[in-house]
Amino acid sequence: MRPINKASIAHSDVYSACSKSIRDQTTSRKLINNIPLTEKTQVDYDKLAKKSNFLTHVKTNQYGNLSNVELTKIYRNTFIKSAKTKDIISTIKTRSPHGICPICGANAAKTLDHYLPESIYTHLILLPENLIPCCGDCNKYKSSHTPKSYEQQTLNPYYDHHYNIRWLHASILPTKPIVFSFKALPPLSLEEKRIIRIEHHFKKFKLDDTLSIFASNELGTRKYELKNTKITSGADGLRKSLYESAESAAHHQINSWQTAAYEAMAMSDWFIHHGIDQEEP
Ligand SMILES: [Zn+2]
């Protein structure tokens, strides 16, 4: 998970923009009348999110003047499609540096995920803080996941910056072709509930499946150059170069797949002495 900064968009501005896009005067008025409520919802959500306390949100069937059915319709038919809300969506999506999904750190963040699922917490369907840019795969894997405990909450890129400690690791399997295996290995000094939460996050998003593909492709791209490094600088020179790549990646993103993959290559005696020289199918 890559921490990102949330956009400064007022919940009320989303309602206001949607109300200007809707032809039906009754629904448009309902959106305007809901504005005082949206301000309170935004403040309350932010307070709870800062404590990673998303569990206390209560499912509702009605939000002020608007029913869940009306809210869902407004999100799908107006918020996502209207020219008046285009800038809001673009501002949220561009919170993710270089357009990379903050969850997997690999695919392009082309979708918006409701951190608390829209099907259950429909009153939060238009709340900017509840909309996280992410890739289609991560969005699909999380789906309408509803945590029942602190540990089951997936990491939130806006609020869980204190989870930006090294926990993503990889190892190399001595196979042909070479396979990278990714694991969530948080430091044991961490509180148990935080360790379990990281492990749950890793499994929920099937990160091993996604990241091993990216790591294998990266090795394919750099293999010729790495083999030449071994020829000119020896096994120790190759190891040093791989550690430098891991260090450089860690400076950029501590839990990136690149940090883990280069470290795995540098740490593997089998890779340095044999794997790098084997012909890949
Ligand atoms: Zn993703």
What would your notes on this structure say?
The chain is mainly α. The protein has two domains: 11-146, no CATH class; 165-277, no CATH class. The chain is 49% helix and 9% strand. The chain contains ten helices and six strands, in the order αααββααββαββαααα. A hairpin with a 2-residue loop joins β1 (62-63) and β2 (66-67). The protein is elongated. The two termini are 32 Å apart. Residues 101, 103-104, 107, 134-135, 137-138 line the site of zinc ion.
- Provide the low-confidence segments as ranges: none
Present as ligands are: zinc ion
- Total of DSSP H or I helical runs spanning 4+ residues: 10
Helices and strands, in order, run as HHHEEHHEEHEEHHHH
Number of domains: 2
Q: Tell me, rounded to a whole number, the average pLDDT.
A: 95
Largest sheet descriptor: 2 strands, antiparallel
Strand order of the largest sheet: 1-2
Q: What distance separates the N and C termini?
A: 32 Å
Query: Approximately how much beta-strand content do the residues carry?
Result: 5-15%
What is the number of beta strands?
Answer: 6
Shape: elongated
Helix percent reads 40-55%
Structural class by helix and strand composition:
mainly alpha
Rg from alpha-carbon coordinates: 22 Å
Attribute tags:
mainly alpha; two-stranded antiparallel sheet; 10 helices; 2 domains; 49% helix; binds zinc ion; 281 residues; elongated; 9% strand
What's this model, at a glance?
With 281 residues, the protein is mainly alpha-helical.
Secondary-structure topology with pairs:
Blueprint: H1 11-21, H2 25-33, H3 35-50, E1 62-63, E2 66-67, H4 68-79, H5 86-93, E3 111-114, E4 131-134, H6 136-142, E5 168-173, E6 179-184, H7 192-204, H8 207-252, H9 257-267, H10 269-273
The chain binds zinc ion.
